[in-house]
Structure formats: structure tokens, C-alpha cells
Design goal:
It is built from 7 helices and 7 strands. Helix content is 33%, strand content 12%. Pfam families: adh_short_C2.
């Protein structure tokens, strides 16, 4: 597997996958995904850009969050990982990779639909890491539904609870701990700009995250806290097989991008590293698209 410092053709750097139809109960596990993902265990090489940083990452057990956690550790950061209790197998694997890099991994399982847990999560991360200066709001819920009439109140409310309400609560709780120089990076999506007809609830939360990011960035700039977002395109993660996509669409997942393939989680990690590092000190309120070439505004 090539690493991110090697000169490679982006079309062929990772395989053009055709995932078989498969189903996992929500939230899904990387350990059971076919084919497996590249989260950077072998392909991400750090250069010390986050040396000494202390980061809380939500949805950090698998997919994009796991890749970001590995990259942060390889760049020198200690990491608190949030995930659902049923994702423990994936979380333990990522914690092991972080510790192999010589960094601290703090495991903080819990449900982000619980408002009290969101606030307690921040306090537990601060205690476990000895402070906090980087927050990555990455956890997301995505359930594909054919028509609006099929979305019941519970799905609508749970999607907003995880994707936007938890982001507000965690960020609000974190602010009293974040010193000048701290960073917040939120995971949005190309769905904020190009909503799929089967993802009306999910896509609308991602548009809200874009707006939240830009407004909060202006509010916190005088305090020296930078807020930005990353907008992934079609990235192969357990989210897609736990009802995140229609099952019949899985074999063609990501093939409509200009690169002709789905992205791997590790391809997102450098964007989060850049926005968290001091290299991006003049970047605020930005949504950095990592979409395989699919255009965004």
C-alpha cells in the first residue's frame, strides 16, 4: 500500500472497489466490512505537525474518525475516542494503533443522542488527556429512505440529535477548556451541496453544519480559536452498509466521481491534520471538500 508521501496516480492509488450487497445493523463495524477500509494503519506517515496536542474525536472507532485518530497520533497528538458501546471492537483496534505510535488513547463510549452524556464526554476527555485543545466533531448518523413519507419522527429526531445537536452541545461544553490556538473541525458532507433524494434528513443536517461552522468561526476568531469543516464525498465506511445507502447501490458506490472510485478514510485524514495544525493559522470558517473531484460551491 502506498503512503501519502509517495508520488502516485490518484485514480489508481487505491482500488476501484465494487462492494457486494451487504447489511450490518446500525452503526456497523469496520471489522466486518467487505472489502475492508484503509484507515492509515500502514499508509499514514506523520511528521510531527500536532506534537503535544490533545484531541477529542467523536465517531472515532471506524471510518473517517478512525483515520483521523490514527493520523493525529502519528503527528504527535494524544487522542480521546468517542464511539457507541457496540463499536468497542473497532475502538480497541484504533486505540492499539494510537498506543503503538507512543501516544495516549482515552476510550469514551457513549450515545451522543443523550444531552447529558455529550457534556460529560468533554469533561472526561479533559480529565483523561490532561486538557483539550483540539475538537473533531465527526460522529454522524445516515439512514437511506426512499420517500419523505417513510421518515418517522424518531429517525428525523435521532439524525438531528447525533449530527447537529450533539455538535452544539459538545462544542459548547468544550469552549471553557479550549485555550487560544485551539481548533475545532466539523465533519460535513458533499450532501450539503448535492443532496441525494434518499438522504433528505441527513443532507439537511450537513447543510446546517456548514452554516454552524462559518458562524461559529467568526464568533470565536477573536479568542484565537479556529473553526473549520471537512466535506467528504463518497468514502467507503461502515456507515454505507448499515442502511446508509440503498443495498442495490453498493456495487456502484463512488464510481460517479471524476476519479471513478470511492475514497478511503485515510484520504480524508490529511485535511483534518492541516486544519488542526498551525499551518492553517489563517484559515477560518472554511469547508474543505475532499470529494474525488465532485464539485462544490
Amino acid at each position: 500500500m502506498s503512503d501519502q508521501l509517495t508520488f502516485t496516480n490518484p485514480v489508481t492509488r487505491f482500488p476501484d472497489i465494487s462492494p457486494p450487497k451487504q447489511d450490518q445493523p446500525e452503526p456497523g463495524l469496520d471489522a466486518e466490512l467487505i472489502p475492508g477500509t484503509d484507515r492509515g494503519e500502514k499508509s499514514y506517515r506523520g511528521t510531527g505537525r500536532l506534537e503535544g496536542r490533545r484531541a477529542l474525536i467523536t465517531g472515532a472507532d471506524s471510518g473517517i474518525g478512525a483515520a483521523v485518530a490514527i493520523a493525529f497520533a502519528r503527528e504527535g497528538a494524544d487522542v480521546a475516542l468517542n464511539y457507541l458501546p457496540q463499536e468497542e471492537e473497532d475502538a480497541q483496534h484504533i486505540a492499539g494503533v494510537i498506543r503503538e505510535a507512543g501516544r495516549t488513547a482515552v476510550l469514551l463510549p457513549g450515545d451522543l443522542t443523550d444531552a447529558d452524556f455529550c457534556r460529560r464526554l468533554v469533561e472526561d476527555a479533559v480529565e483523561g488527556l490532561g486538557g483539550l485543545d483540539a475538537l473533531v466533531n465527526n460522529a454522524g448518523r445516515q439512514i437511506a429512505v426512499e420517500s419523505l413519507e417513510e421518515i418517522d419522527d424518531q429517525q428525523w429526531e435521532d439524525t438531528y440529535a447525533v449530527n447537529i445537536h450533539a455538535m452544539f452541545r459538545i462544542t459548547q461544553a468544550a469552549l471553557k477548556h479550549l485555550p487560544a490556538g485551539s481548533t475545532i473541525v466539523n465533519s460535513t458532507s458533499i450532501q450539503a451541496y448535492q443532496p441525494s433524494p434518499t438522504l433528505v434528513d441527513y443532507a439537511s443536517t450537513k447543510a446546517a453544519i456548514n452554516n454552524f461552522t462559518k458562524g461559529l468561526a467568526q464568533q470565536l476568531a477573536p479568542r484565537g480559536i479556529r473553526v473549520n469543516a471537512v466535506a467528504p464525498g463518497p468514502i467507503w465506511t461502515p456507515l454505507q452498509v448499515s442502511d446508509g445507502q440503498p443495498k442495490e447501490a453498493l456495487p456502484e458506490f463512488g464510481k460517479s466521481t471524476p476519479l471513478g472510485r470511492a475514497g478511503q478514510p485515510t484520504e480524508l485524514a490529511p485535511a483534518y491534520v492541516f486544519l488542526t495544525s498551525s499551518e492553517s493559522s489563517y484559515v477560518l470558517g472554511e469547508t474543505l471538500a475532499v470529494t474525488g473531484g465532485s464539485p462544490t460551491p
